[in-house]
Amino acid sequence: MNQASASSPVGSRTTARAFFVSDRLNTSGLERGDVLATIPLAFRVTANGVAILFRYGVAVLIGLNALEEEEFLGSLEQRMVGKFARRDEETATIELAPEKEEQIPPGGPICLQSLSPERLVLIGEALAKSVVLARHEREVASVFDTTEPFARELARSGRMHGSRRSILKNIGNALLVRHRVSGPVEVEEKPDVLWDKPHLERLYARLSDEYELKERAEALNSKLAVIAESAQVLTDIIDTRRSLRLELIIVLLILFEVIITVYQLAMGRHP
């Protein structure tokens, strides 16, 4: 972490906004002289604006107006791998309050004693994880919406209607979401900056509590376990259907062979 301090923006408040833009964000080659941190990569965009980039596809912009945000995100498009058609956003207000204890009052801004790079990076970490969780929560909810009718039908009638293709499509959606959510974002992992600045652990703990990162991650993992079980059940149903179909084919072949044999015997007795 670079020890240089961030200069205060104009006024006592500024806005931090996290944008989840793609599956991956290529940050190689963006290193520059005004780098504030390397993991994640943080640097100045304007005199009062800071960008914090995460390789798992999130850009956190602090102290930029709407036009500057759009221009900066546009400059990153060539570095976006798997760009989303719809990006998710998370916004927070930061208040510079040197005389106050660093805290996050209910419904209020994030109060900081200084706008040091370390503090801005921690805010970026919390916002980035929160916006990723929000997207994953929505994707998991969509999988539950599609699998619920199958589960309801199975509970009601003991069997499940639907073509093999529709069942396979649901399995594919479940596995795809599970793969995305189990990606490179470790919500409970301690930010690297805290290894060098342990006195900021309390601030990050408050940020984590404010955005309920741990609770949301645990709930998401529980839902992923249900999705995995649902995919397994659907796979077993397909296997069972296939086995029944094969058994029926075998029975019909045996029956056909018996009929042919009986016919041949009958024809042999009556030339």
Blueprint (SSEs and pairs):
Elements: E1 13-25, E2 35-37, E3 41-44, E4 50-54, E5 58-62, H1 66-75, E6 80-96, E7 110-112, H2 117-157, H3 164-181, H4 193-196, H5 201-210, H6 213-269
Parallel strand pairs: 6-7
Antiparallel strand pairs: 1-5, 1-6, 2-3, 3-4, 4-5
In short:
With 271 residues, the protein is of the alpha+beta class. Helices cover 52% and strands 18% of the residues.
Helix and strand pattern: EEEEEHEEHHHHH
> Could you state the oligomeric state of the chains shown?
single chain
Largest sheet: 7 strands, mixed
Q: What is the tally of beta strands?
A: 7
End-to-end C-alpha gap? 100 Å
Give the C-alpha Rg: 28 Å
Explain how this protein is built.
The protein is an alpha+beta fold and about 270 residues long. Helices cover about 50% and strands about 20% of the residues. The protein has helices spanning about 65-75, 115-155, 165-180, 195, 200-210, 215-270; strands spanning about 15-25, 35, 40-45, 50-55, 60, 80-95, 110. A hairpin with a 3-residue loop joins strand 4 and strand 5 (about 60). Helix 2 packs parallel to helix 6 and helix 3 runs antiparallel to helix 6. The longest helix is centred in the last third of the chain and has 57 residues, at about 215-270. It starts with 12 loop residues before the first strand and ends with a helix. The model is unreliable at about 1-10 (pLDDT under 50).
